[in-house]
Design brief:
The chain has 19 helices and 26 strands. Bound molecules: 5-amino-5-deoxy-1-O-phosphono-D-mannitol (M6R).
């Protein structure tokens, strides 16, 4: 969570930073801030709220306007998802040392900040925020400055001071540092995402490539512990373990060999809304293409051999990705001899048993802390690890033995939609390959079945849901995880409390809550459980709960009991999983629109959960 950005180049830094932070806001958006080096002091904005609330009719830093002569500009910025200390102006980054000459932005958590802070206070430092991050600025002050009567004087290079500080802090982090008058940004990461974009006489650091592609498509991914500096003479990477080797002693050729520049194929158009009112709707409309790409990216030749050889698969994921894992586990066990053990990322570390078989992790961002930790745990048990992710170069791709990309393109909306469909594309294709391609033909056409779902009318169902405070979602078999994902989507963006149940479980307690005020959304399509499912729906209806059914609009047994039917044509197990999932995403979307919610940035959330 949190997004960080740094700019060094010939453009005015403030506007570049704010523009970039807008693209990083999906990572956290309760407050933001930037600091720009003005030569004699740092100029800063730190605010609770959204960047779009900032008036844009005035120059950001009027006193820098006379600075037009300057041809190298430096600044850092941050958009926050609060962990230590509530959202407020004082807790917004950047944070400063006592001299006010050093500014830092930090994404992640400094786990040992408390004893460090106590020691710094004993040493005479005073703190301005409740954050863990502020200790970094004070520690750098200690390492960087010599305190003289006439004022603090740098005793070493800023990069060296940052390197000293990395020996004192632990946790997960990506940090950017600048100081008055050095015309330099120093960056370091440890399990936190960080990319350096290399432009023509300009450099841009960011938590991901979205703010970078406007300026360059050439990027470098620093490794954990590397100290990266940009100055007006270029960029320098000091590799962890290089000991006292001078920070810039490496030749250009040596650096390129160790840090290959990746040329991104991402375009600016891909990260813009393209006429849609929300990213979420745009991303849902991209699903037919995304699904096609995902399914066809995996063939018997590209699947890691270990997945074919091992009989036991441990799957670890969080949130929406976990639901995709549930569907995979259900189908693979039904269609092959393999055994699948599914684990929630945040609970996996408490498992007592050793990790068995091949470890398969699923993560859109590739940055979810618990899922990345799961890959490491798999490594500790000498397990081969496979990561399914959407982000090339993300932390998980560096930790896992094998990476399978889901090819969904950038997903900006906090609610996962097209990435879920892409995950299903990869996972269902895996099921086909691992089980001998029982329904390979069905899957190769399934993307076409999404198209009619996009233009269905959801109005009647929306009217029922939008007036409720509590709802239930029910399904059986493989549709149980489908409704779990549908309920997650609804609560996440509409703030309506929605609970998903396996349909048969409802009468084991939750029936007590059924009333005309608690609508139930049910997936009821032909299959082995159809008769018992329609029986369950009758029981629900008998308790007075309004019933929204995803099913055949001509089936008399559904017409009899449903208050509203969202028409879904039964075409086959894999197709039905996809079409019902898309319909539930759209239902959640239109309910949230009706309620006037902040759809792409729902309250209290962030897209990448990079803290445990
Ligand atoms: O990036 P990941 O797939 O690892 O993210 C996992 C969850 O945080 C994520 O799926 C979350 O549940 C979604 N925002 C839900 O829409």
């Amino acid at each position: 969570m949190c997004g960080i950005i740094g700019y060094g180049g010939f453009r005015e830094a403030g506007p570049v930073l704010l523009q970039g932070l807008l693209l990083l806001e999906y990572r956290g958006y309760d407050s933001f801030g930037i600091a720009v080096d003005g030569g004699d002091r740092l100029h800063a904005i730190k605010r609770v709220g959204r960047i779009s609330d900032l008036p844009n009719d005035k120059p950001l830093f009027p006193s820098l306007a006379s600075d037009g002569e300057k041809n190298w500009h430096v600044g850092i910025g941050h958009t926050r998802w609060a962990t230590h200390g509530p959202p407020s102006d004082k807790n917004a980054h950047p944070h400063y040392d006592c001299t006010g000459k050093i500014a830092i932005v930090h994404n992640g958590i400094i786990e040992n900040y408390h004893p460090l802070k106590e020691q710094l206070i004993r040493d005479g430092h005073s703190f301005s925020s409740d954050t863990d991050s502020e200790v970094i600025a004070h520690l750098i002050e200690e390492a960087y400055f010599e305190k003289k009567e006439e004022g603090p004087i740098p005793k070493r290079r800023l990069a060296e001071a940052v390197e000293i500080v990395t020996g004192k802090i632990f946790g997960s982090y990506a940090i950017l540092v600048t100081a008055v008058g050095v015309d330099e940004i120093v960056a370091v990461r440890s399990s936190g995402p960080l990319v350096l974009g290399i432009g023509d006489s300009e450099f841009i650091f960011a938590s991901d490539m979205l703010p970078i592609i406007e300026y360059t498509n050439r990027v470098v991914y620093p490794d954990d512990g590397d100290i990266v500096c940009v100055t007006n003479s270029g960029y320098h990477i000091h590799r962890k373990g290089d000991g006292k080797r001078a920070l810039d002693s490496r030749s250009e050729a040596e650096r390129k060999e160790e840090y290959p520049i990746t040329v991104l194929s991402l375009t600016l158009q891909q990260v813009k809304k393209g006429g849609y009112p929300h990213y979420m709707l745009k991303e849902i409309y991209e699903e037919p293409e995304v699904l096609y790409q995902a399914v066809h990216s995996l063939t018997p030749d590209t699947i890691p051999q270990i997945l074919l050889d091992e009989d036991y698969i441990t799957v670890v994921a969080c949130g929406t990705s976990y639901h995709a894992g549930m569907i995979f586990a259900h189908l693979l066990e039904a269609m092959s001899e393999k055994i699948v053990k599914l684990e929630i990322g945040s609970e996996f570390k408490y498992a007592h048993s050793p990790v068995r078989g091949v470890l398969l992790t699923i993560s859109q961002s590739g940055e979810t802390a618990d899922t990345v930790a799961a890959v490491r745990r798999g490594g500790c048990f000498n397990r081969e690890t496979v990561a399914i992710t959407n982000v090339l170069g993300s932390s998980i791709t560096r930790e896992a033995d094998h990476t399978l990309l889901m090819h969904a393109g950038p997903e900006i909306s906090v609610a996962a939609t097209k990435s879920f469909i892409a995950q299903l594309g990869v996972l269902l294709q895996m099921v086909n390959i691992m089980s001998g391609e029982i329904c390979g033909e069905e899957l190769s056409h399934v993307h076409k079945a999404i198209v009619p779902i996009l233009s269905l009318s959801y109005d009647a169902a929306v009217d029922i849901c939008a007036h409720s405070e509590h709802m239930f979602y029910v399904g059986r078999g493989v549709f149980y995880p489908v409704v779990m994902e549908g309920a997650l989507k609804l609560k996440e963006i509409s703030y309506i409390h929605a609970e998903a149940y396996a349909a048969g479980e409802l009468k084991h307690g939750p029936f007590a809550l059924l009333s005309p005020e608690t609508p139930v959304v049910a997936v009821c399509l032909p299959g082995p459980s159809y008769a018992v499912m329609t029986g369950n729906l009758k029981e629900i209806k008998a308790r007075g709960a309004p019933l929204i059914v995803l099913g055949d609009p001509h089936a008399p047994e559904l017409i009899d009991i449903a208050d509203c039917i969202i028409p879904i044509k039964h075409e086959g197990m894999m197709t039905d999983i996809i079409t019902t999932s898309v319909a539930l995403q759209l239902l959640a979307y239109y309910v949230a629109v009706k309620l006037g919610r902040d759809i792409d940035k729902p309250r209290n959330l962030a897209k990448s959960v990079t803290v445990e």
